[in-house]
Amino acid sequence: MGDRTHTHTGAAGRATAAGRPDSIRNVVLVGHSGSGKTTLVEALALTAGAVNRAGRVEDGSTISDHDEIEQRGRRSVQLSLVPVEWNGYRINLLDTPGYADFVGELRAGLRAADAALFVVSAAQEAGAVADTTRALWEECAAVGMPRAVVVTHLDTARTPFDEMTRVCGRLFGGDDPDAVLPLYLPVQGPEGPDGHAPLTGLTGLLTRRVLDHSSGERQEAAPAVDQRGTLEEARDRLIEGIIAESEDETLMDRYLGGGEIDTGTLVGDLERAVASGSFHPVLAAAPAVRGARRGIGTVELLDLVTAGFPSPVERVPPAVTTPEGAARPAPVCDPGEPLVAEVVRTASDPYVGRVSLVRVFSGTLRPDEAVHVCGHGLTGPGGGTRPRHEADVRVGALTGPFGARQRPLDSCVAGDLACVSKLGGAETGDTLSGTGDPLLMEPWTMPDPLLPLAVRAHGRTDEDKLSQALGRLVAEDPTMRLEQNRDTRQVVLWCMGEAHADVALERLRTRYGVQVDAEPHRVPIRETFASRATGYGRHVRQSGGHGQFAVCEIEVEPLPAGAGIEFVDKVVGGSVPRQFVTSVEKGVRTQAARGVVAGHPLVDVRVTLLDGKAHQVDSSDAAFQTAGALALREAAAGARVELLEPVAELGVLVPDDYVGAVMGDLSGRRGRVVGTEQATDGRTLVRAEVPEAEIGTYTIGLRSLTHGTGRFDRAYARHEPMPARLADHLRESPKSRTNGT
Prior knowledge:
Layout: H1 14-17, E1 24-30, H2 37-47, H3 68-73, E2 80-86, E3 89-95, H4 103-112, E4 115-121, H5 127-142, E5 147-152, H6 161-173, E6 180-182, E7 184-188, E8 199-204, E9 209-212, E10 219-221, H7 228-244, H8 250-256, H9 263-276, E11 280-284, H10 298-308, E12 320-321, E13 340-349, E14 353-362, E15 364-365, E16 370-375, E17 379-380, E18 383-384, E19 389-394, E20 398-402, E21 405-408, E22 412-413, E23 417-421, E24 431-433, E25 440-441, E26 451-457, H11 460-476, E27 481-485, E28 490-495, H12 498-510, E29 516-519, E30 526-529, E31 533-541, E32 548-558, E33 565-569, H13 578-594, E34 605-613, H14 621-637, E35 641-655, H15 659-668, E36 672-678, E37 683-691, H16 698-705, E38 711-721, H17 724-732
């Protein structure tokens, strides 16, 4: 930082960083979709000498977007690791998707990183920054992760740079907007025919020097006279912000007294403040500039990462326990310590099989080494979703990923990342440790997937492969959940949103060779008696030889919700022999499971056997089962039978500005708002009860209604009677039991 002169090592510097955790920087790039993260990674790789030509998102030639789905869709859908070398440091750039559906990949990047670059686009409205990134900023702040802001697309800006920095200070700085300040001011040339002014360079606030790229090379110059007033004003504010975070309490007095503060002192205090997460610099970047060999701002950004962001040695690792839950000392980021590593991402390769991206927190990971794999699954708001598992396995080949390419590695030291092939049944979130001392890392949280996708095999040849393919898909992506619904007899893949569901279907087709059809998701409807009724079941047949004879009379009455099916025997005088009473009960329960009016299970009734008749020769278990079923159907024909639909409890957390719109939308979904609670940071929690048939696609609706700022959780509450018109519709066409919108 501080506009220092440097000579980067490029690819040749790789050896200087090997085996030294203090020379590693793990940085995750986050931001809204279209902010320019992938393009920025390309520019940083080009500047560092890792590639000879920067790829383009538009033609699918970037390092990060190497997946076939990404190349076709022109957007990132998975985490990608691009390591580069700069001044003897190894920088692991973790490029994450910006679309909300792929939050699992984003969380994996946060787990693997020690610092974050928040990429915001000046080409979008300033409000878009708040809509998509503030919650993530707060999440990083909660764990003390150092952060910096990179403003892109200044050459096509809707929002000027100074306005973007004010927005970022207000949204990210909270009570201290001076903790989010620019280190450089952009220099823009004259407006072109399209009305946009190209970015030609940067002005360093601490050095008062212009880094000019107008000639195609990075050259230093003095600022123009008309820029000096703006420069000094921004410089004074930056210096005050740095001094406020300094450990030297005398600096502010010296500065306010008119004393000159040495630039080296300011740079040192700035680097410490950035590393501690108390100061967040804002930089401007134009990764792709016509005529320039390097992007504008990329050198400064790489300097910031190496000098200002912490090494893995300086970060506090996640807590560890034994598999039984006993606390253990925190891992030490030292290659010589016992191994503690974690699978942060799992993928499948058609040739290699399962490949695990591993972050090593302690020790050294080596190929052909025996390790203990232990996992309790990732947790969400509803708790753990996967069973605990552990086993000793042997590490396969160790490689360093560079986009789609894999480079063989001899080892991976503490603080670094590597890919491991054929790591047994390891899943995302699993812990790797020594076989003699098994450990389990503190789990990281994932949001619950709330969009159901019901699938079925397209043909008979796909049926055999579907189950295995779905299992692998869920093992790779912890934000997916697989459900085998016994009530509706559907296979349901719960996803984060429409784009997530589309990618899942495409993965099944292209990666696993399984053709599946999506079908409407059905909710589990129930039937119950709303009034008392009696039924008479008579099953008498004679067709030569032994006949069939069974007669029974029953009474059915409703019970409170949750009571299930209760069977009572009130037969007197032996009109129904004792051995056939259980046959009547079996027939009643079988018919109840099949339903009595619309093909849905019958619940919450008491069935009382009152009387019946038997034949000494022709009565049998099967005959009385049939009679019991007939009696229940006859009772239903003479009673009012209600259809019960599942109702969910929703907790919807939204900014205060959207509360009215959300409550109106819930009412339109036949919901009942039961209360609101004021949350933090200008947000409100709306609690409501809504029929599950109305919230199948609520994930999509809420995202649209709140511009991506709202989120919700759901939990089953109970079954309750459906409105008469909907119930009549289901009675007329039982097969139309689908989710609504």
